[in-house]
Amino acid sequence: MAVISKVEVEVSVVLGTTHMPIHQLLRMGRGAVIELDATGDDEVQVVANDVPIARGQVVLKDDRITVSITEVLPRSPSYRARETARLVA
């Protein structure tokens, strides 16, 4: 178990996306608002180390923002092949 506790995983939640020119992004200052292509009721995507792993809903609970997982995404065959190759090596 000690080996597993040292593994680092970067987890992100994607609320939505947008496209904008880089010059517009560079002009933004503190407090700027970026409009996304999603609404508050849309599902969010949970990403671990840049790999989508689940979908969920944003839940506001007291003073915390949480994500309730609604679907765990299947791993792609190419992902499984890479993981198998790592275990064999």
Structure characterization notes:
The chain has one domain: Roll (Surface presentation of antigens (SPOA)). Helix content is about 20%, strand content about 35%. The chain contains two helices and four strands. It has helices spanning about 20-25, 75-89; strands at about 10-15, 45-50, 50-60, 65-70. The chain has a four-stranded antiparallel beta sheet with strand order 1-2-3-4, with no helix packed on it. A hairpin with a 2-residue loop joins strand 3 (about 50-60) and strand 4 (about 65-70). The model has no long low-confidence stretch (mean pLDDT about 85).
Q: From the 3D structure, determine the CATH topology.
A: Surface presentation of antigens (SPOA)
Form type: extended
Instruction: Kindly state the number of beta strands.
Output: 4
Category by helix and strand content? alpha+beta
At the first level of CATH, the class is Mainly Beta
The biggest beta sheet is recorded as: 4 strands, antiparallel
The CATH superfamily is SpoA-like
Count of individual domains: 1
In short:
With 89 residues, this protein is α+β, with helices and mostly antiparallel strands.
Features of the shown structure:
89 residues, four-stranded antiparallel sheet, extended, 33% strand, alpha+beta, Surface presentation of antigens (SPOA)
Topology overview:
Elements: E1 11-14, H1 22-27, E2 44-48, E3 51-61, E4 64-72, H2 77-88
Antiparallel strand pairs: 1-2, 2-3, 3-4
